[in-house]
Every structure is written in structure tokens, then in C-alpha cells.
Amino acid sequence: MGLLLALFSLFLAFAVVNPVQAADTGSLTVQMRDQKTGKAIAGGNLVVYQVAKLDSGKKYQYTSDFTKMSQDIAGMSQSEIMTANFARSLANYVSTKSLSAQTTNIPSSGDASISLESNAVYLVVQTTSAAGYEKINPFCLVLPYKIDGQTVNNIVAQPKDTQKTPSNNTPSVPSSPRSSKKKVSSKPPTGSTVPTLPQTPRLPQTGQLNWPIPLLALAGLTLFVWGWAEQKKGER
């Protein structure tokens, strides 16, 4: 009986410690919605690159794929990393190279989720858009994301999805060579801001606090020693 009690106490101690270790992973859920109607948009994909990781000095350092970037990420704050200009420079960089990345397709629900390693910086781009829609602007994500004194590892992003401008199907004959070279872009102008992340942060609320962990672990160890001593006493 004493041995069973000791083993149960030891299991309890490890069960309490494990949730803290799980904080090394996070997730990103991108909700694709029509900017005007709010309806879910299925189709297309998302490509996620790990750009940098946190080193022992609590500074971000580029991964091997991004070491040739000219901008020093170690001195950048969270808000500086998540600017539109930095995301565009990263997107231009990856467009000319074949780099490792995670790719996920947008399902019928319009919500695409992907598991990510924490303590890292990511670039999210779209190489294939849904039918009838423009590609979303690239954006950067920092995990964990710090907001209002909290660190959030599970992020929900809601980028702006805009429909493509319908093209004029009426055939036209250019009146001169000069007019045939004149082109009008149907794409809307690129904005200077990125989606605010997280717009709807979702972090499972377990109610678990960190300070009881060492106390419970010590209690489990004490009960283990007590159970072992009682077992030895019974054998005598």
C-alpha cells in the first residue's frame, strides 16, 4: 500500500510540471474572411517561414536560411519586427530562394491552423490565393506575442481579403502603338500597416499557476520517501 501511494505521489509531481514544458510550442490560426461581407474564404494556401530564433541572451538571431538579410534583427523590438516594411523585405528575400517552410491549404471553413515552435519569429505569405481574391499581404509573427503584460502562444490572425477587380471583357483595338503599351493595374495599393496580431488571442485558461509547482514536487518527493520507509518497516 505504501509503495502504491509513493508511486502515485511521484506521478502527481510530474503531471504538474509537464504543462510548463509544453509552453515551448504555439500555434497560428489564420481566419480568411471577405473584407466586405465577412464570409469565410476557402482555397489558396499559406506558407510559413521560421525567420529567427531567440538565443541565450534573449536576442533574436536569423536562422541559417535568413543569414544574408541585411537588417539586423537582434536589435529590433516586437513592434519593429511586425511592420509591413520588414515583412515585405523578407517576402522579397524568400521569393528569389528555395527555403524550407511549412505550407497549409485553406479549408472550407476558411480557418487554417499550423503548429509552431515558440521563442521564434515567423513570416507568413500566400503563394496561391482563393479564386476571385487577391493574395493577402505578407506579415510577421513573434511567438510568444506579448500584449497587455501577457505572453500569448496561440494566435488568431485576421488578414484583409479583398476581391479582385473585375476586368473589362469588351475587346478593344489599340489606336496606336503608344496606347497598346499603356496598362492599368487592377490591384489595390499596398497598405503601410500589417494586421494587428493577435486580433482575437486564444489562450487556454487552465488556472495553473507556476509558484505551487516546486511545493507540490517537494510534497510528492516527501510522500515517496515516507512510503518507501513504511514499506521497509513492514518487511521487517
Task: Walk me through this protein's architecture.
The protein is of the alpha+beta class. It has a domain at 23-162 and 195-203: Immunoglobulin-like (Sandwich), CATH 2.60.40.10. Helix content is 27%, strand content 24%. The protein contains 5 helices and 12 strands. It has helices at 2-21, 78-81, 84-95, 177-180, 212-235; strands at 25-31, 33-34, 45-54, 60-62, 102-105, 111-117, 120-125, 139-143, 145-147, 150-152, 154-157, 160-161. Strands 3, 4, 5, 7 and 8 form a 5-stranded antiparallel β-sheet that branches. The protein has a 3-stranded mixed β-sheet with strand order 6-1-11, with no helix packed on it. Strands 2-12 form a two-stranded parallel ribbon. Helix 1 (2-21) packs antiparallel against helix 5 (212-235). The chain is elongated. Residues 10-23, 175-196 and 198-209 have low confidence and may be disordered.
What do we call the CATH homologous superfamily of the domain at 23-162 and 195-203?
Immunoglobulins
Number of helices: 5
Tally of strands: 12
**Helix amount, in percent?**
25-40%
Shape estimate? elongated
The assigned structural class equals alpha+beta
Return residue spans where pLDDT drops below 50 for at least 5 consecutive residues: 10-23, 175-196, 198-209
In whole angstroms, the N-to-C terminal distance is 15 Å
User: Mind telling me the CATH class of the domain at 23-162 and 195-203?
Assistant: Mainly Beta
Q: Give the rounded overall mean pLDDT.
A: 76
Order of helices and strands: HEEEEHHEEEEEEEEHH
Radius of gyration, whole Å: 26 Å
Strand percentage: 15-25%
Largest sheet: 5 strands, antiparallel
Q: Looking at CATH, which topology of the domain at 23-162 and 195-203 would you report?
A: Immunoglobulin-like
